[in-house]
Sequence to fold (885 residues):
Amino acid sequence: MNKPTGAVISAKSSTKKSIIDFLEKAMDKGVFDAVIVPMRVPAGDSFAYVLIKDKSLFKDAFPIPPVMFVQGAKAVSSVTRLGKGNMKIAALMRPCEIRATIELAKLGQTDLENMTLISMDCPGVLPTSDFLSDPEKGMKQFDEAAKNLDDKIMRPVCQICDKSSMMAGDLHIGTLGAKKDTFFVISNSQKGNDILDKLGISLKDNIDSWHAKVKNISEEKLKKRKKAHKDLKSEIGGLDNLLDAYNQCINCHNCMRVCPVCYCRLCYFDSDNVKHPSEDYLQMAESKGSIRFLPDTIFFQMGRMMHMSLSCVSCGACEDACPVSIPVAQIFSMISDETQGLFDYVSGRSLEEPLPLVAYKEEELHEMEDAND
Amino acid sequence: MTKTLKINKNVEQGILELLRFLLDGGKVSGVFTLKRINKEGSVAYSLVTRSDELEDAVPLFPLMPVNAGKLLSRFSLRGKSNKPVAAVVKPCELRAFIELVKREQGSLENIFFISSTCGGVYPIEMAVDGAVENNLSKYWEAVKKGEIPAQIRPACRGCVEFKPYTADMTVDLVGSSDIDKRCMILLNTKNGEELAQDMKGDFLEKELDKKILDKFQNKREAERKKLFDEIEEKMKGLDGFIDIFGKCLGCHGCSKVCPICYCKLCEFESPDSEYKPSNYESDLKKRGGLKVPPGTVYFQIGRLDHIAISCVGCGACEDVCPVDIPISIIFKKVGESVQKLFDYIPGRDVKEEIPLLTFEKDELSEVED
Amino acid sequence: MKKDEEFMPRILAFLCNWCSYAGADLAGTSRLKYPPSILPIRVMCSSRVDPLFIVKAYLGGIDGVLLAGCHPGDCHYEKGNYYTRRRFALIKKIFEELDMEADRLLLSWISASEGPKYAKVATEFTEKIKKLGENPAKNKIFL
Ligand code: SF4
Ligand code: SF4
Ligand code: SF4
Ligand code: SF4
Ligand code: SF4
Ligand code: FES
Fold:
């Protein structure tokens, strides 16, 4: 694809409403049979992704909610893991959710053939617990902060996210750099082009202002990100510091369970491989006088880094679900920038890029090899 | 009357002395106990084999990072322990382990249990910012007076099973005013007596103070009623249930930490519970829309069906729920009511069969048409 | 459904092969009258019914679930129905505790020769469910 092109859409009522109108119109024209969008739950204290076919349900739809309850990739994967199905579905999600979806597609956990992924400029999300402590207040605070592009109250990884407008799906909704009461619809794939074509939206508008604003923000954020990672590294680098960081871990594996790219039905770290006879545990204890029980905390954390840091999208879901507030996502975002950097890979950037560990080049990574060879 | 060991030290020091005695004298090869891992009041279970490693041990610390029943199951899952070990656990942890043993997920053999009358534990999140540490003196003041310490887990606030059923030794804690000066350990079983034999201290005959514990029980019962009434107010049919669980992430963290949910592959994560594209199509036809991933209510009611009969009301599930759903109170309430059907108290006695694995010919006529 | 149309519930009936299924068959061949509300599923023993089937049916929008097996003492596998009774008691209690219309669930013992009993149970249960109305789970989204 060349540089993505776009169209200016007018949003007289509100961006949210216009996005819904856009989806509804697409359903009317038969472009989509169903859509996956966030909806406020009946009790009003949270949001959930809902697969909607009945258009009357759109009245409760809520694009760009203030929190990320379930990582959207999990929602898409639950719908298409066992096959693409007969329905044409559009999913409206944040960029990191789309990127995780693309990673899952590469991992064979979702079939995107009938799926259209629509991302949007993401202002970040509130930490779930902050939101839950007072949902109404959370809504207001989020709206205010989103309007002012102020990320201070967002998840720590959102504050250093340089990919908050990254286009990885088929269509993107751009609000940055748009004139009052308008937004951009930008296409990022042939599928996206075809859909806009069917809807009679032509991609002829000038979206330079969006490109410029996005560039500006991501450069700024990248600086912040690098600094944050550097600081974190000095804090948790070295085995002792790492142990310290995970000191309070209770081995609940919540972090793995909410992580969109940790898809395994039975995690290695819950399998029989980590269950030992009592003699072994006693022997381990005897060699040191005392062991923590269970003894696998760091093994699990490093194992997970090994297994999925190449696909981590720095969404922050893990950190939000950790009962003892370990900055898991910040640690993973630091590690994954490094591991992905090794292979010049960016998780979820493109469906065409193969997962680094299932591809290789004959000439690469010599710096890892023993110079004497 | 029960043979009782009295050690003239404060209660924590007393137990540590006992544990050292057990390790040094070779009476046990290892000790399961909570140990401090930092100064801010975080603790973790440890398996200690050398008595000098007991320095940071805090066997009675009011936190339950993991239900120890789960840990002891991991320890003895691949065959019984060949060497004797002692475990200092809370009553609901002991009961949970017994339920696991009934499910062939561990073995009681060669494990000796030291438990206590239990004042309750704090939610795990309070361990993070040092809040537990700051509350410790208040906690022990309340326990001494036989009062319910403020801010403990809701499940603990309403727990009436605070006396261990089958511990080899029971430390007298709740309502005993002089735990700063002495440590009373009731030796309930022959194993308990043998372990404590030759220990420095006085041996006497004693019982837990029934009057004091009854009073404590009443306070707990009142709290429990309050908690149950509150949740009953919300648990009104399917709509009420959806209101409570609408924010559930489906992370299944609750079942992961629940000591009773031992399955390697949970039914609700198995292929049987997965939706096929055709399921979505038919559901959409019926409902017009469906929460994705689906299955929240099915999981919750299903988990109740699977484990409410053995729920020990420990509160571990609620502690890890990322969206603060009062799961432990719901499971405790439903659990107690199904347990009552069969006059069953989970973990009371390893010989009592799990009600669903047995039957009586003449019973339950009220559920028949 | 139109307002004036009478509500005809859909009831899922798990019928034990050795007794209740035959009982239902007998009711049919004897031309006994009972409403067309029952969707029978034949199982080899009432104890084959995992309580989760009941939960799934309820959440799927079925208006009532009938679980029918041999009379106590008559189970083809000797003890199956005793276990069934306990499991049923458990799931019914859970429904009661959650205030979820436990009346939509029914356990009945119907032998192969009890065609009339089957017809009676089917008729009465249908009437009861009619009074309860449609299962509210039918159009719930947040399940
Ligand atoms: S490890 Fe954490 S930040 Fe990375 S993708 Fe998984 S949940 Fe998101
Ligand atoms: S969520 Fe937190 S406590 Fe649980 S395993 Fe992950 S890091 Fe450890
Ligand atoms: S359901 Fe919750 S309270 Fe009950 S045993 Fe499991 S973790 Fe403990
Ligand atoms: S919910 Fe049921 S299947 Fe899942 S772990 Fe618990 S007992 Fe096992
Ligand atoms: S821990 Fe909480 S959010 Fe996770 S599945 Fe259980 S109830 Fe739902
Ligand atoms: S065979 Fe009929 S109930 Fe068991």
The mean pLDDT of chain B is 96.
